[in-house]
């Protein structure tokens, strides 16, 4: 799978301490950017992602594959009922919560069931 900048989960938030918007990519250690506006931070973060990936490739460092299942769950987490998701996906609720807390990857079968369950919510 080819790594593309916008395939990674990104987080952009306002930082009172820095008086700017901060963008980060949890999967890419140290990949952060900032801007005076949300849009500027998003633009700078896109450049940072491309730079991070280029440097890793140049130095033959491992490049993590985006975990779309985890990212989709995190994106929906403010409105997601984990107990309902676990039940619909046929996954133990404690296993689901534990994998989310640790950032562990789901098996392909679990990912498929979760994606189907997310569509039903």
Distance between the termini: 28 Å
Which percent range describes the beta-strand content?
5-15%
- Class by SSE composition: mainly alpha
- What level of helicity do the residues show? 40-55%
Radius of gyration equals 16 Å
Poorly predicted residue ranges: 1-5
Order of helices and strands: EEEHHHHH
According to DSSP, the number of beta strands is 3
Major β-sheet annotation: 3 strands, antiparallel
Number of helices: 5
How are strands sequenced across the largest beta sheet?
A: 1-2-3
Let me know the average pLDDT. 84
CATH class of the largest domain: Alpha Beta
**Second CATH tier, the architecture of the largest domain:** 2-Layer Sandwich
CATH-defined topology of the largest domain: Double Stranded RNA Binding Domain
Please indicate the count of domains.
2
What shape does the CA trace take? globular
Give a written overview of the molecule.
This protein has 121 residues and is mainly alpha-helical. The protein has two domains: 5-58, 2-Layer Sandwich (Double Stranded RNA Binding Domain), CATH 3.30.160.250; 68-120, 434 Repressor (Amino-terminal Domain). It is built from five helices and three strands; from the N terminus they run βββααααα. The protein has helices spanning 38-58, 68-76, 82-89, 93-102, 108-120; strands at residues 11-15, 20-24, 32-35. Strands 1-2-3 form a three-stranded antiparallel β-sheet, with helices on one face. Strand 1 (11-15) and strand 2 (20-24) form a beta hairpin. The longest helix is centred in the middle third of the chain and has 21 residues, at 38-58. The two termini are 28 Å apart. Mean pLDDT is 84; it is low at 1-5.
């Amino acid at each position: 799978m080819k790594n593309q900048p916008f395939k990674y989960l990104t987080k952009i938030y306002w930082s009172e301490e820095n008086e700017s918007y901060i963008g980060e990519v949890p999967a890419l250690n140290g990949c952060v950017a900032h801007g005076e506006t949300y849009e500027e931070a998003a633009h700078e973060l896109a450049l940072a992602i491309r730079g991070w990936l280029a440097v890793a490739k140049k130095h033959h460092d491992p490049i993590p594959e985006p975990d779309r299942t985890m990212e989709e769950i995190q994106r929906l987490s403010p409105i997601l009922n984990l107990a309902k998701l676990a039940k619909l996906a046929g996954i133990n609720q404690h296993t689901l919560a534990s994998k989310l807390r640790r950032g562990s990857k789901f098996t392909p079968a679990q990912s498929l069931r979760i994606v189907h369950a997310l569509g039903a919510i």
